Amino acid sequence: MADIGRGIFCLKAPLWSLFIFCLLVSSLVGAAGGPRGEAVASAHPLATEAGLMMLQAGGNAFDAAVAVSAALAVVEPYGSGLGGGGFWLLHRARDGHQVMIDGRERAPFAAHPDMYLDEKGEVVAGASIDGPLAAGIPGTPAALAHIAEHYGRLPLSVSLRPAIILAADGFPVDRVYRRMAGLRLSPLRDSEEAAAQFLLDGAVPPHRHRPRQPALAETLHRIARNGARGFYAGEIAERLVTAVRAGGGIWSSRDLRDYRVLERAPVATRFGEYRLVSANLPSSGGILLVQMLNMLMARPLDGLDEAGRVHLLVEIMRRAYADRARYLGDADHVSVPVARLLNRGYAQRLARQIDPGRATPSPVLSAPPAEGRDTTHFSVLDAAGNRVAATLSVNYPFGSGFVAAGTGVLLNDEMDDFSAKPGSANAYGLIGNHANAIAPGKRMLSSMSPTFLESPDRVAILGTPGGSRIISMVLLGLLDAIDGRPVADWVARGRFHHQYMPDRVEVEPAALGDEVLGALRQKGHRIRQLDEPYGNMQAISWDRVSGEVTAASDPRGIGRSVVVPVSR
Ligand code: DON
Question: Is 375 a catalytic residue?
């Protein structure tokens, strides 16, 4: 399209509209035209294939996103699924429209702040993690129907087809599936339906065994035929509620009937020549990324040695995560001082307190008042420049481990992302307070951070699973992109993380050398060397000048990224 179409329009238009239009078009398609490739990067090769099939069938990036999400729900049941939720960040090339599709789970109407506490007011271990009481009302089916209807070109009967086939015919079990099922054997065994669907004779199935999920295929089929109503009303909804209540959960038909997917404005900021676009509340990701970039503007990394760089980044992470614990929650239910948190002056004040020679002990920062690799990310870019960054979850590996009888739907345990009690840590060690307390119909605070980084020269699409570490991983990936490193480096780089509490720097194996670790200890940092790597980043980079598209899947996982060249 680009050059010829642009020329003709520009000649006919009056001067002022010509100027605005040309500016708009060149910002959308780049000086050399649109992307010279279409790309999908996801955490599973079969999901990537499902996305590519949609692009080949005349679908756009949004159809591909629906197909990838649905396929992941089948082949990566430990990461996301119809029983879970997520955030889909969309960019529509035609008009530059950017939106976050909020398909986050929400608390059932019968939920209350003390539901995971015992009579002494202590958190009951595991209550918000295993079984149907841990499950929020799913958002993924509503989000897929919404994206297909409002942004896609293909009907759900086409975009859900690869997932339906994978559910009916099965898919080969891989090493990640086996490891995750091993971690969650106990809750999976406790649910008869989950054991039948995901295990073999009550044990982790062998490599290349093909789990078939006929009930899930049927549920997908109903969504393909009836849209969101195929899940939130009628027989599937009845079965979900019956099974959840029989298993000790508190869902009602009204919870499902009233679930709404929401369109929200993403969080955006400028950082030098770059524009960051990321997830808004109920994700904490975008707000923390803006805060951290704002602090970096006040305290740049330039000229620092590696230990100095890591120290500064850790101190910045510490301060942003402290604000997460103190202020953030679902802004539809509690008041959150978003404008203040996004304010540059506020970030400057925080950054000024950073001592280059010394770690700030976390308790010194305003404490909250007294009161991996599961989850999944994928990125898509089509030939028109439409793009999607999506991070989806059922929370813990295999969610709550509970499959609702007659639906094939594995339920999330996202209720654990609420703060069960002020100051008590959740599964990721995150603490919170009243802002993220449980309330009926409220969305639990998330760290999922699907992100775009845009400049006149380049577009980056990225994100990752990893619980509380998602936001620090995305920050490190963004800094690599800003440094001009290739996309393969963003996903492969060694990672480190600080989340305010616990007060320590978590470091991936071999991410930092002994010298740097020694220097950090000298500055007063407590270091926790991790035994296992973390994260599973899926990223795409589009060079707007040359049109070149590159993509990469995190080498820590089994994902696959593909770029298909387009001829113009
Ligand atoms: O929404 C959140 O922040 C979490 N439920 C994400 C969980 C996750 O990334 C697990 N991956 N290791």
Answer: yes
Between the CA of 447 and the centroid of ligand 1 the distance, in Å, is 7
For residues 418, 424, 425, 430, the Cα torsion angle rounded to the nearest 10 degrees is 60
What tens digit of pLDDT does each residue of 214-256 get?
Answer: 999 999 999 999 999 999 999 999 999 999 999 999 999 999 9
Check whether the bond before 361 is cis (ω within 30° of 0).
no
Peptide bond into 422 cis (omega under 30): no
Q: SS3 for 5?
A: helix
Residue 141 Ramachandran class (φ > 0 left, ψ -120 to 50 alpha, else beta): alpha
Distance 415 CA to ligand 1 centre (A): 11
Could you tell me what percentage of the chain is helix, strand and coil, using 3-state DSSP and rounding each to the nearest 5? 40, 15, 45
Neighbours of 124 (CB within 10 A): 12
| CA distance to 367, 408, 471, per residue, from 487 (Å) | 37, 37, 18
Query: What does the pLDDT look like over 172-216, one tens digit per residue?
Result: 999 999 999 999 999 999 999 999 999 999 999 999 899 999 999
Q: 0.85 exceeded by the pTM?
A: yes
Of 375, 376, 451, 464, the active-site residue reads: 375
Lookup: tokens for 222: 């109903």
Q: Phi, psi at residue 138, to the nearest 5°? A: -65, 150
- DSSP strand pairing (505-507 vs 403-404): unpaired
